[in-house]
Structure formats: structure tokens, C-alpha cells
Write a structure and sequence with these properties.
The complex is a heterodimer of chains A (379) and B (468). Chain A is mainly α. Chain A contains 21 helices and no strands. Chain B has a single domain, classed as Spore Coat Polysaccharide Biosynthesis Protein SpsA, Chain A, CATH 3.90.550.10. In chain B, the strands form two sheets. Chain B has a ten-stranded mixed sheet with strand order 3-4-5-2-1-6-11-8-12-7, with helices on both faces. The N and C termini of chain B lie far apart (57 Å). The chains are: A mainly alpha (379), B alpha/beta (468).
Chain lengths: 379, 468
Amino acid sequence: MDGLTVLRVAVTVVFALNGLMLAVILIVKPLHRARDDRHRRRRSTYIALLSRHLASNSGKVEMGKKVADDQAFLDALIDLRSVIGGEEAEMLGDLVDRFDIARKQSVNLRRRIRTDRRLRAAVALAELADESAAPTLMAHLADNEQEVRVQCARGLGRMRWRPAIAAILDRFEVETPWVRSRFADSLVDYGTEATWPLISYIRVHHRLAAPGVPSAVRTLGAIGDSEAVPALLEVLDDSTDAEIQIAVVETLGRIGGPMAFDPVEKAARSEDWRLRAKAATALATLGDVSVIPTLALGLEDENWWVRRNSASSLSHLPTGIDVLYAALLSQDRFARDAASEALAEAGEVLAARARIESGRGEPRDIHLVDHVDKKLALL
Amino acid sequence: MIAVAIQIVGYAAVSYYALMNLYILGLSIHSALVLRRNHHLQRFGRVREMLSSRLAPPVSIVLPAYNEAAGIVDAIRSMSIVEYPRFEIVVANDGSSDDTLEALVEAFQLELVRIPYRDELSTKPMRAIYRGRSGVDITVVDKENGGRADALNAGINAARYPYVLCTDADVVLDAQCLVRAMQRVVEDRERTVGVGGNIRPLNGSTVELGHLISTSVPRGMIARMQILEYLRTFICSRPGWSEWNGLPNVSGAFGIWRRSAVLAVGGFSPGHMGEDMDLTLRMHRFHIDNDIPYRIVYEPSAVIWTEVPESARVLRRQRIRWHRGLMQIVADFKSMLLNPRYGRVGMVTWPGYFLFEYLAPIIEFVGYIVVPTGIILNLLSPRAIIAMIAIAFGVGMLNSFIAILLDEPYGYANSGTDTTRLVVIALAENFGLHQMTVLWRIRALLGGRSVKVWGNMERRGVASLSET
């Protein structure tokens, strides 16, 4: 075969591929569009049917069992389920049972089929949160596909399936940060039921500085159970890992309570600036004016973030604004800057200017405006 | 001797053209595999989880504005309804001589705030900072004119949040673009320093008050050709490059960067004509040189719409500017070329870019002269040359068809009319339009006065696009 013949064959192949691709475009696109339109129409019809069923309160629905195999029906069920509650949700739950939907989706999740179908099954099970699917969801917490794992944890959290708490926590050490965070979100759904398993996990793992511990600590903060405070204080005392300490201080700030004051104040005097900065923010969320002297000290910190967070926290406390005005007279120019920046953020600069212009300006207003104007002149 | 040279150069030029299209075809197939998996993941649940997550890091949307009075207000209104838990908008008014600042002051009830400004990236002098009181979290930095890169640096200085979305004032953001792009950050916050988005031409679509009402492929051949170009780039190339962590360019119209990383590399380079690519490559170089684990990724479902030139005159100016930018980049980053130290960026994507973007106009132009000369002098076989050109055209068309097909799940140009228009341009662009862009890029290589950096793109403003 000479060179020219090879080229001719190549040309034929390339143009045949082009023809094939063109045919695929011209056929597939309209087919997909028609399929999507059909799906939308069917879903609307099912939503209307299900709404009528809920409104009639008869417990009967004029639909054959075959609809359970229709993805549009499942989508409609999920859409409706997300906007209703109480008795109506129970009626939809009865439909899920009657049409055996949870079992069918569990089978789909277990089958070796295309990833998108398995994902769809996992999402459906998570949304429906039917307890009959809990064993399947538990089994797939270690699925190869990370989104399936996320959806399984979400479903178990939504149904508050207690045996899953330990299983989810067991996965903390092996998961990527994204999946671990989603797992943590699912534990928040359990509320205080998850408090003690989380505390146990933290107690066992914090000495190893395990990567899942900060997530577990923050999950406690999201749950907001004050029973966790003593254990958190213990961890703060015991742990040498900065990430864990930072998470504990942040969480103590979120949970609050009198027990949290001393350790967070102590963290505000830590050698690690990250801990001081986090403590400065946490002190504001504790919301007691007794923290003001500590925050005032933070204005003169060597680290910019600590000064910034201290100033910002002061601007949120009842008498903190006065402390910020007082800091404008500080010998420390960094403290003056942090204070003026926080006052500007709080709208005090504009207010001070307005007071001066209306003749009601106080000396501290003049100080503030002077300081800001001098800074601007330096730019 | 001359005859042999003509034969070698002639066949080499045509072979190069075919090779280039085969390279793009390989990239398209790789991207198709990446996109397939991505579609599955995007369809389920993640966006809603991200929106309600405590882990969504706040973002500053930074946009430079130079004489954008016509569309800036609508553009910001469209940005202000982006679905994301926490973000601010920072506009850097780059010494506009029109009413850009006045329009912003009026629309968003801006007030002068006298807050200290951190000059972490050096820029042209700042005149004033304004904050909005209208409910939109907007900050406007008014500064002296210094070009797009300088304005972006000023905006980054004023940004309060750890991630900055660098974009333009003439774009329309899809409501979910930020959440979709930022989920890539949340997935791997330690390593992710940059995320690029999917830029789509706005021409032919209907826009009302800064919001996209409907999309369509425009009638004009020049705009239509660019739609296909954008599809080939953003659907067929970037997903593949991103998978290899070898993305050579995060487009200036939509690039999310970790603010601290931008500060570490010194921000955008003022006066650079390809400042987006320059920043991307400097990010690669900085992290590899300092052995810092990192990744720069592309998210195709983060869609942003921008106006593209509709006249040959404006397109010519844009392409000359782009190629001049590429020339600057080739000079600045030649040490990375085929350098194994820089991994896939140095060995695959950057050489590919150099070979098939930078050198393409030179080799094609040489081919335009040598091949007809060789045929006339009977030194090249007309049949062989025609067959080779046919293969190159055929593979090029195949790439375009793959792009059209891969774009289908995004649902923007799927009507019968739009599909036909794209198919027609995939066939037609090889006969004149493509060659025109080659000549413009040759013009860029020759240099001269025709290059201006800032403000020479004729825009009608996002709002007025609904009139088309």
C-alpha cells in the first residue's frame, strides 16, 4: 500500500467519523430534549396527583404500582416531601411503603449499575429517610463512590438512625476533608443524641492529633449541647495540637456558658497567635462585658489578626465601643489603627463626622476623625 | 536544494496542522471522560449542601471597571443575587473618565468611608473608598488609571475575604456559578489555590436588568465562530488539563483565587497583556519551586457569560492583543518549557500551548506560502497535500462536533436552530474565518502600534444586549 492510499483511507475514516458524529448530534440532541420535556411534564402531573391525594385525605391514590419505577414519580415525591410536614409527610411515607420504593432503591444502590443510577438511588433514599433502608445505607457508608457515602450518611442522619453514629465516626479518620465535613453535618442532624459518641471519639483520638478530631469538636459546637463543655475543657488542657485547641476554643465560644469563660480567656493569652485570634472572636460570642479588659489587651497584641479580632469583638459588645474610642489615645499605634478600623466598620466614623458637623461632636469624635484623616493622608 | 526545502517545509506544515488537530482530539476524548463523571456528581445534592454548610468560605467578588457606565449597575445587580452564603462585591474604578463612579454612587447609595487601606499589592494611587448602604455588600475603590491588572490588585487589597473571584464588569454570572466553583475549594481546601469557570459568549442571548432570560446562538458568523471556539476550549480542553493539575490558564473573566496565594506571588502583573495566564503560570511556578502542595482546577458547571466581539475589526484587535500577551508569557516562562521539574505543566500542557497556540500561526502562515508554491512548481503532490489538508480539516470538524455534543448536558444551545447554526459554523470556519485569525496573530508577532491594553473592546453594556 503506497503513501497516497494510506492517506485516502485516513481521509475516508476521518470523514466517516464526522458523518457518524453529525448523525449522533442530530439524533441525540432532539431525543434528549424530548426525553427531558417528557420527564418534566410527567413530574408536574405526578405532583398534581400527589397534591390531590394529600388534599383529599382519603389515603387512596389512583395510581398503578408501576409508577414507582418511574423516575419522574420519585422526583415528584421527593420535591413534595421537602415542602410538607406532619400528617401529610406521613401520608407520603405510606405511599413510599405501599409502592415499595425504599426497597427498590436499596436494590438499585446495591447493584453494579452506572454510577449516576446508584447516585440517584442514594439521593432518593437520603431524601425519603425511610428506616427500612437504614441497613443498606449503613452498608454503603464505605462505598467506593464518595458521593454515595455522603448521601448514605445524610439519609441516616435524617432518620436519626442511632447505630449509624459510631459507624460514621469510624469513617472520620479515613475520609477526605469534604466527605468528613458532610459526615459531620449528618451528625448534627442527630442533635444531642450524638453528643456522647462524639465526646468518646474526641477523648480517644485527640492525643493522636487525628485529622477528624477538629471536625468532631466543631460538630459539638453546631449541636450546642452544654454537656460537652467539661469534656472540651479537658481536651483543651490535655491536647498539644494547635488545630484541635483552635477548634475547641471556637466551639466553647459557640456553646457558651459560665464554664467556658476562664479557659477561653486563658487561650487569649496563649503563645500561639492563632489561638489568641480565635479566642478574641470567641470572647465576643460569650457576650459578657467581663471579657472587655482581655479584649482591650488584645488591641495591643503583636499579631495583626489578634488586634483585628479583638477590635471587632469589642465593637459588638455593649460598652466595647467606648473602649475602642479610648484606644485611639493609646501609645501603641497598632492599637490605634485596629480600633479606628473597627470603629469605621461599625459606622462610627460617619456618625462622628455627622455629630461634628451638627455641632454635637465630642472630643473623642474629633480624635477619631483626626486619626482616620491622618491615615488617609499617608496613603 | 530549494526544491528539497520546499518539499520538507510543505509536508511538515500540513502534517503539523493535522497533528495539532489530533492533539486537540486526544484532549477532547480525555475531557469527555472527565466531564462524564463530573455530570453525575453535579446532578445530586451537592449545591444545596454547600449553600447550607458552615464550611463555605466567604468570597470577595473583585471586578475592575474602566468606563463601564453603560452596564456596571446591571452587572453588579446580577452579581448581587448570586446564590452563596457569604460574599461581598469589590469594584475597582480604574480612573474612569465617564460616569461609572457616579452611576455606582447613585444606584447603591455609596458613601465615602475613611477606612485604612492595606496596600499589600502596590498599585496606582488610591483616591477614595466607598461602601454601599443599599443592602448590597459593595465596596468601591476609586483609583487612578493603571490598567486591568492594577485595578484587580487594588480590589484584592480592599477585599476582606480569604478567596477572591476576579471577574469583569461586563459579565453576567450564573446564579450558581460561585457555589459550584467554591465546592471545588471546599473539597480540598488545603491544596486548592485557584478555580476557573466556564466562560460562554453572551451574544444572541436575551438579558434583562443584568439577568439572563434566554440563550441562543447568534446569527453573526464571527460571534458564532467564537461560540464554537469557547466550547472547544472550555468543554474539550480545560477539563482534561484540570484533571492533570496542568491548567495553563484560569480565564480573567472568572477566576477564583486564594487571596493569600495571590499576595504571595505579587498579584497580577500591571501592563501585562495576558495577565490571567501570567498569574496562573506564576502560581504553578511558585508552588512547585517552593514544594508547596497545590492544585488549580476547572469547574465546567460554574458558568459565566461575557460579550464577544461581533465585528472583524474588534475581533482583530482582541486577537492581536491576546497573541501579544502570549508572546510576553512565552518570554517570561521559557524556563518552564520541557522542564521535568514542573511536572505535567512543564512537560505536557505548557509545551502543548507553546506548540499549538504560539507557533501555530507561524507554521500555518509558512504553509500558506510554501504549499501553493510547491504545487505550482510541481514539487509537492497535489493529491497528497489535498488528502493531508482534508484529514486536518476533518479532525478539526470532529473536535467541533465533539464539543457540541459534550455541551449538550448544560442545556444552553440545544434547540434545532442553535444546533444547526453550530454545525454550519463548524464546517464553514475552515474556509476563511480560521485563516483570518492566523493572519491577525502573524500581525501580532510583527508588533507595532495596533496593540492597546485597556478599554478598547467596544461594549454595549450588559443591559443593552436585550435589544439584539
